[in-house]
Design goal:
disordered C terminus; TIM Barrel; alpha/beta; 8 strands
């Protein structure tokens, strides 16, 4: 009996990264075409959390121009050390309000906005620096207590409140689907996010900007595209399996995940 092949082999050369990128883009195109959509309408955001900078230089040489990170400190360090490469940085993890100034200083995009206190901190710092920031509103579409994100019923009032934050450019909504092998449960999360976007547009087209939907990761991005994703966040399928569990970065994915409000998770952006 032989071991099953690793679904996410580690990329260690520029050629490896180029091949993995091409494979993911091929899957994106097939999923989009299968849904009757233009593949050009789906943006791929490579997620580089835990990947060291020497490997990121190889990945960037393979054609990556933007990278997503969960932890602010890790993202800020990488952004500084790789500043010569002109990468666009997206912070996609939960943000404590006291870290808002750090994100405002270096990030091009923040995909996990779900509290007005954080919006206030970002807006103040951005206006002081004369900068703007693209933001996505994170929604808890799975109704899991361990997940961050706004309850669906709070999304429209939250979007309306963001009008007062002139340095924040709302681009759309973001979610993490339930971690499950039941594809219908996963699809339901993506469908709910799309419906919320459509409701916001019907209320006021300006509320949700371009109305992008950031949803889908390595294990479920094809389902997300079928349900309307315009941004997919893909890490392991490009970089290889991570040495640390997703639970460290995405609370709620596994039953043993720490409480996201505990001190252990408070720094896990």
């Amino acid at each position: 009996m032989t071991d099953a092949p690793d679904p996410y082999p580690r990329a260690g050369t520029t050629a490896d990264f180029a091949a993995n990128l091409a494979a993911v883009r091929t899957r994106i195109a097939a999923a989009a075409e299968g849904a009757g959509r233009d593949p050009g309408g789906v943006r791929l955001l490579p997620v580089s959390k835990t990947v060291p900078e020497d490997r990121l230089r190889l990945a960037i040489a393979a054609g990556m121009t933007e990278l997503g990170e969960n932890k602010v400190q890790e993202a800020q360090r990488k952004a500084g050390n790789l500043a010569d490469l002109g990468v666009r940085w997206s912070v996609i993890g939960h943000l404590q309000s006291n870290k808002a100034k750090d994100v405002a200083a270096f990030a091009h995009e923040f995909q996990a906005l779900d509290r007005l206190k954080v919006a206030d901190g970002l807006d103040r710092r951005l206006q002081a620096d004369g900068r703007g920031l693209d933001v996505f509103i994170q929604v808890n579409t799975s109704a899991e207590d361990t997940k961050f994100g706004l309850p669906p019923g709070d999304v429209l009032p939250f979007l309306a409140a963001l009008r007062a934050h002139h340095a924040l450019r709302v681009r759309g909504l973001m979610t993490l689907a339930v971690f499950s092998g039941d594809t219908e449960r996963v699809r339901a999360c993506f469908r709910l996010l799309r419906d919320l976007r459509d409701r916001a547009r019907a209320t006021d087209p300006d509320l949700v900007g371009e109305g992008h939907l950031s949803m889908g990761m390595s294990g479920d991005f094809e389902l997300a595209i079928a349900e309307g994703a315009t941004v997919v966040r893909v890490g392991q399928a490009i970089f290889g399996a991570r040495p640390t569990p997703d639970a460290l970065y995405w609370p709620g994915l596994f039953p043993e995940s720490p409480d996201p409000h505990s001190s252990e998770m408070s720094e896990s952006v």
